Amino acid sequence: xxxxxxAARAQRRVRWSVALGGVALRALAMTWRIRQVNRAAFQExxxxxxxxxxxxWHGEMLPLLWCHRGEGVxxxxxxHGDGEIVARAAxxxxxxxxxxxxxRGADRALLGLCKxxxxxxxxxxxxxxxxxxxxxxxxxxxxVAQRSGAPxxxxxxxxRRAWRLKTWDGFMIPKPxxxxxxxxxxxxxxxxxxxREAAADAPHLERLMHEAAAVAADA
Length: 219
What we know:
Elements: H1 3-29, E1 33-37, H2 40-47, E2 53-55, H3 61-67, E3 74-77, H4 81-92, E4 96-99, H5 106-118, E5 123-125, H6 140-148, E6 152-159, E7 162-164, E8 172-174, E9 179-184, H7 195-200, H8 202-218
Parallel strand pairs: 1-9, 2-5, 2-6, 3-4, 3-5
Antiparallel strand pairs: 6-9, 7-8
């Protein structure tokens, strides 16, 4: 089989996966019972016309795509193969995508995210993506916040009943009628004078995300 035919077949598989997955996701997500805690952390910024940088763990992405559907948030999606399916699923829910990661297209992704924020749009980054280690913050999100001046909103999600895929991130799929708690942590303003210093402060964001997870678990 030629490379062109193989590529065409792969594209068809992606389209079918997205179409079928989108229908299944909507049917499943409509049953979820979602509680959002401290939404004011970012809503106040939106009311003032100021963009924010959402930071979320890669394995908790699915319920957050649903929570923020139709809001036009631009989410950083890996250029790896499975990223194409996630990207199209996100776009089908009214989100935008910026392609790249810490391992592929990093500079282009960083520039794209900064441009979105500078134009007034919100962005979302998984600081442990696309390959982990899980729940450990890579510095890119700090650099975007430092360069753009937008605050970071750490997010944590807990689902009382969920499937966990056997992947590096334990990707969460809440079960039908699951009770889900989404906690938005306090705004983190990155005021360091250089991107290098901002990157060095990534453990601070990691602590805030773990604290938000503890709140979600107790809620």
